[in-house]
Amino acid sequence: MKRVIKFLTSVKLAIVLLIILAAASVLGTLIPQGRSAEEYAVRYGGLSTLFIRLQLTGLYHSVWYLALLGLFALNIIVCTLERLAPKWRRATKPHVAADPKSLAALKVNARFKRSAPLAVIQSEVTGLLKGARYKVRAEAQGARTSLLGRKRIGGIFGSDVVHLGLLVILAGGIVSGATSVRAHLALNEGDIQAAPKAAFEVRLDKFTTEYYPDGSVKAWKSDVTVLEQKKPVVSKTISVNHPLTYKGYSFYQTSYGYNWQNPTVEIWAKSKSDAAFLKKLILKVGERALLDDKDKTTVAVQRFLPDFVLGEANAPESRSDQPNNPAALVEGFRGADKVFSGWIFANYPDFAQMHAAGEPGKETQTDLSFELKSFDSAQYSVLEAAKDPGAALIWTGCVLLVAGLALAFYWPTWEIKAVLEESQGKTDLVAAGIAAKSREAFNAEFEKIITALRSSK
Amino acid sequence: MNESTIFTLTFILYIIAALFYLAFLFSKKPGRAKVGSAIAIVGLVLHTAALVIRTVESGHAPFTNMYESLSFLAWASVLAFIIIDKKFGVPRIGAYLLLIVVGLVALASSPLMPKDATPLVPALQSYWLWLHVSVTLLGEAFFAVAFITSIMYLAAKEPDKKDRMDSVSYRCVAVGFPLFTLGGLVFGMVWAYKAWGTYWSWDPKEVWSLITWFVFALYLHTRIVMGWKGKRSAIIAIIGFLAALFTYFGVNYLLAGLHSYA
Lengths: 457, 262
What we know:
By secondary structure, chain A is an alpha+beta fold. Chain A has ten helices and 21 strands. Chain A has four domains: 2-79; 94-152 and 412-455, TATA-Binding Protein (2-Layer Sandwich), CATH 3.30.310.80; 164-259 and 381-403, no CATH class; 260-376, no CATH class.
């Protein structure tokens, strides 16, 4: 039992955990996460059930990965606390008294004699150390006086602050996991939806997509109004990287989609025999337009599919909501009689053929041809509404983490100890320096101080 | 002069600097390293000019696709080397580092990398692009120097040189680790939170930066607490840099995820 506790509190465990966590994390990037059981069956065959049972398919949320993180947190707490008490004593109640032998045994040391009384040397040493921004403490024991000069003592707590930051981040993760609320809100212009688990609503006033000259998307912008008891309180334009924050909730522009309920379609009618004939029509689906005054031909777009595909029994349908293969079903009428019909495709203008009504496959006598030139439909905006009380902890932890790293690496604690002993009007001085970090710079400073002491009259 | 001409000149200067450092390596004449260093600095100045011109012309930070970020990583590596060399006087690493930089620039110049400055997709339109990418790549540049010094440690015979490489390697990690933590993890989380609404989504790029972080945390704990030095430290630093390299490069080509820009 004692051994177990000892292992739990050891840095060795931290090292083992770092290795296991790294290896497990690698595994999670090799196995695609969060897919369907069927997909795993295809990918891994018989192994797939084992993978799923071992939670390798949702690895970062698995019981064992979280347990590893928990153990890691426990180890950090225990290791940090164990080292904190002595460090705290070192910072607040340092041992000033030193003996010359142990000082001389340190790597950075100096020893010399000056013909001056102890008090004079002590004040010189103190002055030099203070000049170099050391905080100086002194303690006299009989004929001997020990001096301790120290600067940037905060540096020794750098690793503790880093560890505290990590714990706060892990706590933030737990709070996020347990309490965060999120929902996707798909909104058409004018739609109102309640924020998840909240007493207020959001209304999409306007959704626009801005394009660069090359046609790629520059921005999605949702003009949104927050409603409290149906009354508007805040309005803001949300775009990617610019969420709206209200009462702890944030609303992010995450996606968009096309609303194909009522598109507007532009078609051009041409005549095969008359090259000068060109009629441009902009129609809603179902709307008829007069094409030819003489024989009273009218034309209508009966259906519009953004992503045309022939489904079961060769029935046209849309594969997706994306305008990948836009197609319109054009029908021509003379009076009340349908005389021709056919699909036209925006991406394949030459593919269109008009068929006589009622006789599929047989080309009609009509002289007209049609092109699907453009189409327009309302787009809806998808906002992510999120309330994440853990985020505040995460940012606090991040600040601690970075501050701790700065302390640990760039706030080196330096100590200079000296023992002075007077005999027969002469003072014997032994000094030594201790620096865990930035030793070269420290050695130079130590040398400078010692040289100044030796040479002063 | 336009950006691509300056970039080509930079490339040539880096090659010449690498050759001088190689000559120094074989002849041991310090003068050659000095010339190499001067040429590398001129190269760095020109490279900076090329990056500035690109920023002005495109109107956005010069690291939004692979070509741009490779070029920036090369720039950061030369900068890291010049700083480390000024501080610790280790011209020996110049030859290896500049060869890697020449490789990076060659890769950036290869026809595989589209060079056109394309307009920014909505997700990248943020000042966090500057902070996140520049600080992360600067951190990785120091990891790159640590990688080289670690390999040189393993290859070296004389104890003097070994000690020197071991210590420089640690110094580089001591600079790179805080930068990588700040730029890669912290700034990355803040930006993800602003753009996507979650600070962490276990996306492969996020996980691999965490893995890199674990490896260097391992390096620091084994070294500072357990007193590991030399060979074992060098091996961990090498693994750490390879993890960083995979985070930066491999994830984009081998693993699909949210972070599909560069």
